[in-house]
Design a protein that fits this description.
The protein is an alpha+beta fold. Helix content is 38%, strand content 20%. Strands 1-3-2 form a 3-stranded antiparallel beta sheet. Strands 4-5 form a two-stranded antiparallel ribbon. The chain binds iron/sulfur cluster (2 copies). Residues 32-33, 40, 81, 83-85, 90-91, 94 line the site of one iron/sulfur cluster.
Amino acid sequence: MNTAYIYLQLYRLFDDVTPLPVDCGKLCNKACCKGDDSGMFLFPGEKAVFNLLKPDWVRIEKTDFTYEYNGKTYNTPIAMCSGECDRYQRPFACRIFPLTPYLDEKGKLQVIIDPRAKGICPPAKAFFVDDFEPVFVKNVEKTFKLLLKNKQFYAFLKEYSKYLDEFKRFYD
Ligand code: SF4
Ligand code: SF4
């Protein structure tokens, strides 16, 4: 599967669609782009985009976050930046921030406010999901419904949701 091609198509849904109809970076002085070694996880197969485009503003590193699929253990890479990027090449997690996909206890997709965002992002702290731009929320849902058709992606998201649960305990 040409995952770079799939992600590049999905990226386009967020080229001009943003969480709010205003430049929210002005609210918080771009708190989510501080380049302070926090980084953004890449979703399964997304690394292929960076292997293809080879942008010079990002470093891809390994993390300890793993998931099992088909008897194999997969390591999740993280994209580290210095707080500047090419908007049209930025990772998916940056495009959907401060929302994130989440599998509930029945294994059903939910789009939630990323609990990790609540400490840094004013709208993440104050808003409900429905308060964000409807097209933005719809595009996040559309994207992950599609990606979840892939069984490996589902395995990743199951583990990732458990990881988010650790943060939800503090912020919900
Ligand atoms: S931290 Fe939140 S409000 Fe600030 S730029 Fe990022 S998404 Fe927008
Ligand atoms: S890649 Fe771009 S959008 Fe993502 S955190 Fe870095 S500067 Fe912000």
